[in-house]
From TrEMBL:
GO biological-process terms attached to the record: dATP catabolic process; dGTP catabolic process; dTTP catabolic process; dUTP catabolic process; TTP catabolic process; UTP catabolic process
InterPro entries per record: MazG-like_dom (IPR004518), NTP-PPase_MazG-like_N (IPR048015), NTP_PyrPHydrolase_MazG (IPR011551)
Protein name per the record: MazG family protein
Organism ancestry: Bacteria, Bacillati, Actinomycetota, Actinomycetes, Micrococcales
Entry-linked Pfam families: MazG
């Protein structure tokens, strides 16, 4: 019989859960810090361009997925296992790629995104706000980019767009990611020099943006 490494990984996780006393005490919430750490280690490997490191770190992230699925398989309320996780993923990806699986045509990345967003909107009809489903635990800069996109969907953020336009008029907007990195570091240094918390400052501003979005929606 041909070897199935993914199935072996599932069985290895099950054996560890059965026989390792430390693993037996872990629940979903206790695993979160490890998932965050492994995700950041994978990002480091990707950015370094080291294929061997990336292969290893992808495995570590996969182990976290297997771990959560194994814990869930033993739950008394709404249990599911790795096969269920994989089946749900396949169903979602087939729905969101109608140009691959359902006869739609998408000859540009923009059209692919339109189809993806349409499928996603159909799945999430019960959501009352464009903010529903946004992970607040994302790093503040990633969260800012996400919320700005959501704001644009409901016509919020004209003041931010105007500020960007005005800054561009006087050459104060970076023209590359490298320049953007320099500017962000400079702003962080300014925050540090003034005793401010740069992370908190951005998150507090994002809360105001969320309030603006919800006000428009209501």
């Amino acid at each position: 019989m041909e070897r199935d490494p993914l199935r072996e990984a599932v069985e290895t996780m099950r054996a560890v859960r059965d026989r390792c006393v430390w693993t037996q005490q872990i629940d979903h919430r206790a695993l979160v810090p490890y998932l965050v750490e492994e995700s950041h280690e994978l990002i480091d490997a990707i950015e370094s361009g080291d294929a061997a490191d990336m292969r290893e770190e992808l495995g570590d992230v996969l182990w976290q997925v297997l771990f959560h699925a194994e814990i869930a398989s033993r739950a008394t309320d709404a249990p599911f296992d790795m096969d269920d996780v994989a089946a749900t993923l396949v169903e979602k990806m087939v729905r969101r790629h109608p140009h691959v699986f359902a006869g739609e045509t998408a000859e540009t990345p923009e059209r692919v995104l339109e189809l993806w967003n349409a499928a996603k909107a159909a799945e999430k009809r019960q959501r009352a706000s464009v903010l529903d489903g946004v992970a607040r635990s994302m790093p503040s800069l990633a969260l800012a980019q996400k919320l700005l996109g959501k704001a644009g969907q409901v016509g919020v953020g004209a003041d931010i767009a105007l500020a960007v336009h005005d800054a561009a008029e006087v050459g104060a907007v970076p023209e590359s990611e490298e320049e953007l990195g320099d500017l962000l570091l400079t702003l962080t240094a300014a925050a540090r020099a003034n005793g401010w918390d740069a992370e908190r400052a951005l998150r507090e501003r994002l809360r105001l943006l969320e309030d603006e979005i919800r006000a428009v929606e209501s």
